[in-house]
Structures are given as structure tokens and as C-alpha cells.
Amino acid sequence: MVKEEKFVQEEDVNYGSPATERRMSASGRRISTVDAVFGEIVEGGPDYRSVGWIGTVALMMKTQIGLGVLSIPAVLDTLGMIPGLICLIIIAIITTWSDYIVGTFKLRHRSVYSIDDVGYLLFGRVGREVFGAVFVLFWIFVAGAGMLGISIGLNAVSTHGACTAIFVAIAAIVGFGLSSIQTLGKISWLAWIGLICILVAIFTCTIAVGIQDRPAEAPTTGVFISDYKLFRNPTITDALSACSSLVFAFAGTPAFFSIVSEMREPRHYTRSLIICQSGVTITYIVIGVVVYYYAGSFVSSPALGSAGVLIKKVCYGFALPGLIVTTTLVIHLPAKYIFVRSLRGSSHLTENTFKHWATWLGCTFSIAVIAYLIASSIPVFGGLVSLIGALLGTLMSFQPMGAMWLYDFYGEWKAKRTPYLTFMVCWSIFVIVSGTFLMIGGTYGSIVGIINSYNESGGSAAFSCADNSNSVAA
């Protein structure tokens, strides 16, 4: 209990570069860094403070551009182009602010490693356990969606060359192997490769949809005219489900705690964030508008299947490395959280002991297996993405960040009552309330959508061998 109280009280106004003490650890090895989260980082052990600001950009963008962007044209088809773009921009603004709060909160509370630490500061032990559980579940579900995306890609490239259940298992094995790389600094080069590959894939699809006579799922005879709509009149459940998919597309926020914790210079976090969010938002708008404009209601979900069989093979050929890296990251993040929490305060956290490796590989293997079971049990890409965004994405990207700002500045507002602080109090409350509304309504809409998908011919059975690469957005 004394240790926990020390954690709460520990503030850091000069947080930035790690301490550079040169002394001997208990095992006789020199310590090059003493970090508030990882403790004594010894020479020859894993360096958990090695990510530069450019590598941070790649990691941030790769946690977002991947699975979410593939569902955005279908979101515009549900909401209509103009309401869809308005919702996308609003969610981009809210999540960008949330991401910014992650960085500033970390600078004020240097011992914070993950969102469970935030939960402890805000709500005590109950908050820690609840936030920690949701964090792990969120990334496990995202990893499941990543494995499902990889299986779709393998089916597309191979023309359904094997049972889909086998492809999902292959995705799980590859994800486990790559996610077991110990530090984000070593994974950042993979993030660049994955980011470039996924961008090439989605822009190739976008150009092909614009050049071709008609999208892949459109009638093959007659003159094709895109039936895109500027406005639509969706049911409330469909609208909330679509908004949940947009939340998922921007829901890299909980990963940013881990990323800033492994930066060499956390003060450069905001610089990386601005580049990341600008690039992500522009990409989403361009991809969503162009693909939906040319494909209309015949847009596929994932969107890479919208431009015909040949282009789909080409696009998924480029996209597969990106989807693999996404799955790698989202297995690594919850595994690292469990690993750090299990060994925090122990020399085994930063030294290459048997307990270190057994714990680490056990974490990555367990996360990969659970994600595999989820991907095999809910093989409906659009429905799974929407469910993750609604049930877990909002709770990780909206409410905690509003509460974090109030935790740091509510007392100052009560003392000063300036217009700026009053606005920020109202904004923080709005973020909390809107996130709660989206979480409840979106979860209901997503579950209804998944049930409907199973009841229709497009629904796939759990652990199915059927080809899952030929889906049209509902």
C-alpha cells in the first residue's frame, strides 16, 4: 500500500530525457537508464526507451491506418456522404484532443504507463482493474479483427486457396512470432513497412475504382451510374453502428500511452501527434469520398474488394504486410501491458532472465490464442469492427481523457473560473457524455447488425472454411 501511495503522489515537471545514472545493478551489470516505469534498464537488456519522434509517427499511424480505413466507404454509404464526413471530422477532432491529453498527462504523471494507471489515479483500485481489463480486451478484439483481415487478404490473393479457418490460424501464428519482439523501438521499422504497404494498397484501390467502368459488385450489364447519396436516412441502429466504425478508425488512443512511455524524448510527442492525425484524417477523407463516389452502394467491406478480382488481388498483396504489422502491434500492446504489470519493480523486467522470457512469451502467446478464437467466432468484418469501436473504442478514447483533464485542472477552474477553463470543463464533460452515448447505442446497433448478418446469406458461420473475401457493405 505504501508503494501505491508513492505512485499516486509522484509528479514529474521535468520529464523528458531519461535519467542517465551509471552504476551497478544487483546482478553486477551497469545501469544506463533509470525510468519511472521500467525501473533500472541495464546495458545488454531490452532498451524500452528507444523510440524517436519519427518512429513514433509510424507507430501512431500504424495503430490507426489499417483495419479502420477499410470500412470508411461503407460508413459513408450508410450515413450519406455529407453526414458521414461531418461525423468523421467531429470524431477526428475529439480523438485528436484525447490523444493530446495522453501526452500532457504523461508529462505530469511520469509513472503512468498504461490506461490502468490512469484508472488508479482517477478511481483507485477499482478503476485500475476496470480500465486494465478494458484495455486488454480492446486490443485482443482488434487483434482478432486483424487476423480476420489477414485471412480475407490470403483468400483474395490465393483465390480461396485453403480453408479460411487455416488462414486465420496462420495469421495467429505470424502475429505471435512478430509481436514477441520485445520493444516498440525494434518494431517501429516494421511499422514503416506496414504503413507504406497499406497506403499503397488503399490508394491503388481508390485509383482503380475511379478508372474502372464499374465496381466489382455492380451489375455486369447495362450502363453503370454510381448511386452514391449525399444524404441518407439510416435507422438509428445503423447510424450508431456506422459512427462506431469511425471511432474504431481513430481509436489508437490507448496505444499512445505505451508509445510515449517508450519514447527517448517524450516532449516531442505532440509534434508526432500532429503529423499523425493530419495524415490519418486526410487519408480517411480521400479514401472514403473517392471510393464511395465511384462505387456507391456497391462498395465492399473491407473496401479493397471494390475494384474487381484482379485489382483486389493486387491490393491485398500490398495490404497483407500492413495487416500483419497491425496485428503484430495490437498483440504486442496488451501483452506488454500484462508483462510490465507482472514484473514491474523486479529486475526481471529489464534483464534477460528465464522468468523474463517465460513471462513475455506466455503473454504474447495467450493474447494471440484468444484473438484467434474471437476472429474465428465472429467472422463478419464490418460487424466486428463496429462492435469493437462501440463497446471498447469509445471507452478507451473518450471518457477517460475527459476525466483526465478534469483531474488535473478542475481545482484550478474552481479557483479562477476563467472563460478558457470554463470552456474546457464543458468540453471535457461533453466528451464524456458523447462517448457514453456512442458506447451504449453503438454497441446495441453493432450487435443487431451482426445478428442480421448471420440471418442473411452473407453471414458466415464460426470457424468456417467459406471464402470471406467477397463481401458487400450492408
TrEMBL record:
Membership in a protein family: Belongs to the amino acid/polyamine transporter 2 family.
PANTHER family named among the record's database cross-references: AMINO ACID TRANSPORTER, AMINO ACID TRANSPORTER (EUROFUNG)
Protein keywords: Membrane, Transmembrane, Transmembrane helix
Membrane topology: Multi-pass membrane protein
Segments passing through the bilayer: 51-76, 82-102, 130-152, 158-178, 190-211, 239-260, 272-295, 315-335, 356-375, 381-407, 419-440
Residue intervals of the Amino acid transporter transmembrane domain: 52-447
Organism superkingdom: Eukaryota
Name this polypeptide is given: Amino acid transporter transmembrane domain-containing protein
Gene Ontology MF, one: L-amino acid transmembrane transporter activity
Cellular-component GO terms for this entry: membrane
Coiled-coil residues: none
Taxonomic placement: Eukaryota, Fungi, Dikarya, Ascomycota, Pezizomycotina
Subcellular location, record wording: Membrane
